[in-house]
Amino acid sequence: MLFLIEYDRAKGKVVELSRFSESERQAANSARLNLELELNRRGVEHEVVLLEAEDEAALRRTHRRYFEDLLELAS
Fold first, then answer.
1. How many structural domains is the chain composed of?
2. Is the pTM of this model over 0.85?
3. Which residue range is the domain that position 45 belongs to?
4. Fewer CB atoms < 10 Å away: N or C end of the chain?
5. Other C-beta atoms within 10 Å of 12: how many?
6. Nearest alpha-carbon partner for 6 in 34, 69, 22, 26
7. Which contiguous run of DSSP H or E holds residue 29?
8. pLDDT digit string (tens) for 25-59?
């Protein structure tokens, strides 16, 4: 499964999380590029990443910084 994340570093929050199946890899890449272009056009400085994981639970384990605050990460 592929996950497209728009992350607001200043607020430490996920703005948007989209899911794509492996067969939608091309659509996921296009969505990532379109999101980056749109954010750039609007002058919004958010992080945009496309990640692959078995499921959302695995994604939340391997990329905790997107889903937990500093106190949760420190524990």
1. 1
2. yes
3. 2-74
4. C
5. 13
6. 34
7. helix 25-42
8. 999 999 999 999 999 999 999 999 999 999 999 99
